[in-house]
Sequence to fold (240 residues):
Amino acid sequence: MMPDEAVLLIGGLGTRLGNLTKAMPKPMLAVAGKPFLEYLLGYLKRQGIRRFILAAAHRADVVRGYFGDGLRWGIEIVYSDPDGRQLGTGGSIKEAEELIRGKEFFALNGDIYFEVPLEKLWSYHREKRSSLSLALFSTTDTGRYGSVSLSSDGVITDFFEKNKNPTGRPCLVNGGIYVFNRSILKRISKGVDFSLEYDLFPKIAGKTLYGLEFPAAFFIDIGTPQDYERAQTEIPRRNF
Fold:
C-alpha cells in the first residue's frame, strides 16, 4: 500500500522573493487569496496523503497559526521546527525523522506544485527496489535547477551543478518530489546544514538512486517573482 504520509520542506528563507518573505514563509504566500501551501495540501490529500509532517523553520509560527493540527482540512499535521535554524533539505528531513512512522514516505519541496501521480512514482520506487526515487521533468532552465543523467534502467548516475546550459537543449531536472526508504536517513547528519542535492545524492548516484520522468506533468515553482505571479492564475485553475 502506498505511504499516506509526507514530509513537506517549508522552512527556507525565500530570498529571491525579496520583501514578500521577510515576515512570511514562502509556502504561506497568498495565491488568489489562499496560502500556496493550502493548495498543495489539498492536491496531496486528493492523492491519498493523510498525514503531513511540516518541516518548518523561518516563521514557523505563521504556519502553525493558520493550519494547526489540520483537522479543519480532514488531515493530520505535525510539525518539525528546529527553532528557526536553517538545516537544508536533508537536515530538515533528518530533524523530522522521529515523527515519521513508516518505512517509506514521500518528501516534497513546499514551494513547488508538480502534478505527479504519487502512486506511479511509489510503484516505480518499489519495482526498482530503490532507496530514494526522484520525480523528474525536462527543461532548458538548468541555471535554476541543475540537471541529472539517467541510465537506461532509471538509475541516476550523475548530478550537475546549476549552469547556463549554453546548448539550450532540454535536460532532466529534479522536480522536488521524492520517495524515501527510511533507512537512507542513516546517511544524513543530524543538527547541521545538510543538502540532499550536494551532500547525499552524489554519494548514492549510480547505485540505489532512481529517477522517473513525468513529461506531461504541470510544474511551477513559486520561488521567483515571475512564477509567483503566474501562480495566481495557474494554481486556482487546477484546483476548481
